[in-house]
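JOB MANIFEST
job_type = single_chain_structure
chain_count = 1
residues = 140
[input]
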Amino acid sequence: MRRERLFGILLLAALPAAAQKSKGVDFQREVRPILSDACFHCHGPDKNSRMVGLRLDTQDGALSRAIVPGKPLESKLYQRVMQENAALRMPPQSTHKVLTDAQKNILKTWIEQGAPWKEHWSFRAPEKAAVPAGRNAIDY
């Protein structure tokens, strides 16, 4: 009886994670924070601290040199994150940043899904909502 109850509790706890996995990885909520925390210091907007001219903070920079959408094993980003040789692994030990297995899996899944890139909502132009027929536009 106790085993069945424990199994049920574990199953219920795993359901939200499984449901989230089926929806896919959200770039803004899951991928950008990883890149921002572990990569942007050396591969971000500051041209004075940027290494090897690689930018991971822009779609053009990331997709042109580090990511092959749909192919994590061909993507330099994933290759370097998964590198067994500590001297070649990213982020480097000198930054004292270590990616967890969960973070590495998020990056892999995101690349497998085609590496969809979404700009932050504040950089997108507002869109005017459609007014339902027979309604006054001022209400919307």
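[summary]
Confidence is low (pLDDT under 50) at residues 15-21.
Helices lie at 2-23, 27-38, 40-43, 59-65, 76-82, 101-112.
exit_status = 0
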